[in-house]
Amino acid sequence: MIILASASPRRKDLLSLLVNEFEVRPADIDETPHAGETPEDYVLRMAAEKAAAIAETGRFQPADIIIASDTSVVKDNAILGKPESLSDAKRMLRLLSDTQHQVMTSLCVRNVDGSRIVTKNVVSTVTMRPISDLEIEQYWRSGEPQDKAGSYAIQGLGSVFVSHISGSFSAVVGLPTFETARYLSEFGVAALREKICE
After folding, report:
1. Required cofactors, per record (predicted)?
2. Domain boundaries, position 182
């Protein structure tokens, strides 16, 4: 069995493109960045800790595989988390407006006993067009940015602000499907075979 250590519906949808059956078991961990921690180290640590937290529950078969991921929007080496308010969303989207930023999405795939763990950080560059304060307020009222890193969702209404992306679209959404399929194959799970044989 494959276990997705995330409550994100976006990650669930992306993983369902690769495999037919998996369980969703959200990991409850402290997601506070450490002092002096780089964004890359942070997202890699988050994915690894989410996977480890699920592994520690001990409710598995020996062949089970855990997948965890974490996504951070990064501007000028600062992590932009989920907005706490409209004013916080304005602060973030003003920073992102008419410029480029990075979206870092980490991936951790491991077996339950931890004898094999693979990790990867996928970095994509996103270019935003200029965004007005009125647009930010209208976007906030849609409800979409309120639980999104960086205050926007590229797969949703927030796509109207994105003029260009260099990297992995699926990673920006929340789970890098190319890397996930590749790592699953190393654990004996072939995504194409899984979907063809459904």
Report:
1. a divalent metal cation
2. 2-196
Assign 196 a pLDDT band (cuts: 50, 70, 90). Answer: low
Q: What is the CATH number of the domain that holds 6?
A: 3.90.950.10
* pLDDT of 169 above 60: yes
Q: Where are the alpha helices (H) located in 64-168, listed in sequence order?
A: 86-96, 133-141
pLDDT > 60? residue 198: no
* Integer-rounded Cα radius of gyration of the chain: 17
Question: What's the length of the chain?
Answer: 198
Residue 137 CA to residue 148 CA, distance in Å, equals 15
How many domains are there within the chain? 1
Centre a 10 Å sphere on the Cβ of residue 82 and count the other Cβ atoms it contains: 16
Worst-scoring range by mean pLDDT, 25-34, 41-50, 84-93, 99-108?
A: 25-34
Kindly list the distances between the CA atom of residue 172 and the CA atoms of 101, 113, 122, 187, 192, in Å, as whole numbers in the listed order.
Answer: 11, 29, 9, 24, 22
**CB contact burial 89-117 (16+ within 10 A = b; e otherwise):** bbebbebbbeeebbbbbbbbbbbbeeeee
Given a contact cutoff of 8 angstroms between Cβ atoms, the answer to whether 196 and 190 are in contact is no
